[in-house]
Amino acid sequence: MNRFPVRKVAVLGAGVMGAQIAAHLVNVKVPVVLFDLPAQVQDGAGAPASAASKNGIVTKAVDGLKKLKPSPLGVPEDAALIQQANYDEHLDLLKECDLVIEAIAERMDWKLDLYKKIAPALAPHAIVASNTSGLSITKLSEVLPETIKPRFCGIHFFNPPRYMYLVELISTPTTQPEVIDQLEAFVTSAVGKGVVRAKDTPNFVANRVGIAGMLATMKEAQTFGLSYDVVDDLTGKKLGRASSGTFRTADVVGLDTMAHVIKTLQDNLADDPFFPSYATPDVLTRLIDAGALGQKSGAGFFKKVGRDILRFDAATGDYVPADKKADEIIARILKKAPAERLKLLRESTNPQAQFLWAILRDGFHYAAVHLADIAESAREVDFAMRWGFGTSQGPFELWQAAGWKQVAEWVKADIDAGKALSKAPLPAWVFDGRDGVHTPDGSWSPSQNKYIARSKLPVYQRQCFPEALVGDGSVSPLQAGTELFKNDEVRVWTLDNEVVIASITAKLHLISPLVIEGLLKAVEIAEQSYKGVVIWSPDDVFSAGANLEALMPVFMKTGGKGILPEVKRLQDALLHVRYATVPVVAAMRGIALGGGCEIAVASAKRVASMETYVGLVEVGVGLIPGGGGLTYIARRAAEMAAAGNANADIFAFLKDGFTNAAMAKVGTSAIESRKLGYLLDSDTIVPNKDELLHVAITEARAMFDAGYRAPHKKLFPVAGRNAKATIQGQLANMRDGGFISAHDYHISSLIADVVTGGDVDAGSMVTEEYLMALERKHFCALLDHPKTQERIMGMLQTGKPVRN
Ligand code: NAD
After folding, report:
1. Has residue 285 got a pLDDT over 50?
2. pLDDT, tens digit, for every residue of 124-178?
3. CA of 13 to the centre of ligand 1 (A)
4. 187-234 confidence digits (pLDDT tens)
5. Which among 209, 205, 137, 150 has a CA at the least distance from the CA of 176?
6. Which of 107, 135, 440, 550 has the most CB atoms within 10 Å of its CB?
7. Of 327, 297, 294, which Cα lies nearest the Cα of 311?
8. φ, ψ for residue 647 (rounded to 5)?
9. How many other CB atoms are there within 10 angstroms of residue 608's CB atom?
10. Are 636 and 661 in contact (CB under 8 A)?
11. From atom 39 of ligand 1, which residue's Cα is the shortest distance away?
């Protein structure tokens, strides 16, 4: 196996990108040292800076990471794991680093100076990579000593690096192919990113195509007289793109940053047939001159004033209300299948439709003309746009899905009619009789004049279902493998004939009787002839909890009492999962709330992607967890107390668990979810979402092969009535101080009743069934409470919690 053991990474430059890249490396457990210039600080007497203060720039950046939103770190306290360094004192630390990522300011001369400075200190095998957005990687490599050149390349992260999936890797003519392969494997599996290889051309792939697309959108918006709010509504979710649309995306990126990327296009692409369309829009210059740089300076194309969103009005220079939306008819057209959608947009006389057809046409035109120069194949362009700009499909995919030949004719006709942004004709390969660029054999490469298959690097064997492209013949995970059982909400299947996979297919994977049936079936089948069960679904959610709406008919007829057997069925099923004779592994990604969290904690093991958000949120709808969640909290407290000290006070271990449930806390990452106690230290956090299934199956199989036995069913001690009284005293203070409502007090008291075991002596031994009976009783009583009903109805109707 081709191993590239990265013991430590050095990140050079603790600015916006460097600091956040370092933070993400900490998230994925890669040791990291973060460098910046020595701070020019003098102490009071004018003596040279003290050793500590020379790290001043880095220290400030690391502190800043704890406050940044969205958080670059899984938990803020992990900022302490970033080793701080400066170039004056700590260059010798570089010899421990297997990878050096340079992310200093975007100036060729500064970067070159730095490379010269660090070169003698580097480990002889270290890979050195620049995070530049716009400078030529080949030019940067030219000053490097011959020994470093083969190990130098570009590594282009997107902001914010924790959340953006795309990383572009760029070779120079002297980069050794094995080096890029090693780096791709590391960035994919250990860092958890989607790698696209880009050619060394200005702005690489995503920013080249993406920024050209934004400029085209701004231009066509002007041509068709559409305001920013309408354009953003049209070019956001409705068009299958990032919800921030176009102008708000520019605000988020920063208008100065955007201008910088545009300037790279202007400075380097004089021969590009699209050169005139790289002109900086007047309004962008005006806003930048006025200091309106977007979100970071509080105003840009949009400005938030109190609760209102205003938009810049170029005609008057004022900010005016931004409340206009796309026309209803256009929204309806955008829901149609691709072929019909494009046809209707093109034929409509509605300016919004004309605008949309124009920007799609410009996008197809641009991508086709530039493909040969910027990327090896169409696959790189489509993935770069999906992963770097948040589109649901790349330009080539949409074109292919809408009917390649027809769309090609339409684009050609517009070019001929002078409607396109450039007169450059579509390349000949577009018209060679093809039906698209993606096929089961690979994606089209105009520069190599053939279809190129996906990368065969061993790291991709860890992805059971890599992201599919239109036309690439991939089998959907919900049709793959051997099906063992299926109902309307769960598919039970196997990929390897060793481990059973249970995939919940219900909306938001809400838990219903059918879901319970499916999970039980999966366990039953596995217990007969497989090694274990993995609960995994291909989409970005584990489970949003119980399906309350589905309980409504029964509830209407019989009230809370009638729900009792339903709750018991869920509890029994989850006990069955916990005590199954084979290991059940929850493969988690996205939200795992309420009942979703309860499925996870009942499992023998959890394998979670970094972006997993777990919590018991039932109080939001006026309920308490009823599927064993509180029983889990009580049991864990007893286990932790026993592990620490035989006489330890269970209450001390209970407090956090109680608070997390009573306040409906949800982890903002897998790491924080573990801190809340919903994942254990022995659980696995997987950096790359696409490796989740592979890792979970591997874990289940390994547990079985290691002789898995279910845990003993045993009694455990609870904290009892005194602990409950203490909690209630504190709750009463919060209620009387106006921090929580009377109903919150009531619900929290019921939670306290379950987790302490209720009216029993401290240290009383209980069973899980005993606590679950308490959960059930309180859950159903709450259902009959009018304030809980108000909360449930509010949530079902508006999706927002009602505070009462
Ligand atoms: P930044 O301005 O936030 O940080 C730059 C850092 O470089 C600062 O910490 C500064 O102290 C340091 N620095 C400045 N001059 C230096 C010198 N002469 N020697 C050593 N260090 C020096 O910049 P950023 O936005 O983090 O960008 C860093 C790199 O990442 C750039 O190459 C940029 O093109 C690229 N990039 C930026 C983004 C983005 O969205 N900001 C995205 C992808 C890539």
Report:
1. yes
2. 999 999 999 989 999 999 989 999 999 999 999 999 999 999 999 999 999 999 9
3. 6
4. 999 999 999 999 999 999 999 999 999 999 999 999 999 999 999 999
5. 150
6. 135
7. 294
8. -100, 10
9. 31
10. no
11. 159
Amino acid at 54: K
Q: Encoding tokens for residue 440?
A: 């089961």
Residue from 11, 12, 17, 109 to probe ligand 1 pocket by mutation (most atoms less than 8 Å from CB): 17
Report the length, in residues, of the chain. Answer: 804
Helix or strand (DSSP H, E) at 787: helix 786-798
Distance CA 131, CA 157 (A): 7
**Ligand 1 contact via 159 beta carbon (within 6 Å):** yes
Q: How far is the CA of 103 from the centre of ligand 1 (A)?
A: 5
- Are 785 and 581 within 8 A, CB to CB? no
Predicted confidence at residue 800, as pLDDT, reads 86
**Start-to-end Cα distance in the chain:** 59
Residues 31 and 83 sit within 8 Å (Cβ to Cβ)? yes
Of the candidates 138, 201, 220, 235, the residue with the CA atom closest to the CA atom of residue 371: 201
pLDDT over 70 at 743, yes or no? yes
Ligand 1 site, residue 131, Cβ cutoff 6 A: yes
* Contact 106 CB / ligand 1 (< 6 Å): yes
Which amino acid is present at 531? K
pLDDT for 517: 97
The confidence score (pLDDT) of residue 401 equals 98
Cα separation of 542 and 679, whole Å? 14
Centre a 10 Å sphere on the Cβ of residue 466 and count the other Cβ atoms it contains: 15
**DSSP 3-state of 486:** strand
Task: Identify the pLDDT of residue 133.
Answer: 92
Q: How far does the centroid of ligand 1 lie from the alpha carbon of residue 106, in Å?
A: 6
Predicted local confidence at residue 2, as pLDDT:
53
The pLDDT mean for the chain works out to: 95
pLDDT of residue 554: 86
* Whether the CB of 104 sits within 6 Å of ligand 1: yes
Q: Give CA–CA dist 328/356, Å, rounded.
A: 14
105 lines ligand 1 (CB under 6 A): yes
3-state secondary structure of 88: coil
pLDDT 10s digits, 765-782: 999 999 999 999 999 999
The answer to whether 102 and 15 have CB atoms below 8 angstroms apart is: no
Count the alpha carbons within 13 Å of 487 in the hemisphere toward its beta carbon: 15
Residue 728: CB within 6 Å of ligand 1?
Answer: no
pLDDT surpassing 60 at residue 489? yes
Residue 18 CA to ligand 1 center (angstroms) comes to 7
Name the residue of 104, 257, 258 whose CB sits within 8 Å of the most ligand 1 atoms, as the mutation to test its pocket: 104
Ligand 1 pocket test, pick from 68, 133, 204 with the greatest ligand atom count within 8 Å of Cβ, gives 133
Q: Please, what's the b/e burial string for 646-677 (b: 16 or more CB within 10 A of its CB; e: otherwise)?
A: eeeebbebbbbbbebbbebbbbbbbbbbbbbb
Q: Whose CA is nearest to atom 32 of ligand 1?
A: 132
How many angstroms separate the alpha carbon of residue 64 from the centre of ligand 1? Answer: 15
pLDDT digits (tens, 9 = 90+) for 322-355: 999 999 999 999 999 999 999 999 999 999 999 9
Q: Is 202 in the pocket of ligand 1 (CB under 6 A)?
A: no
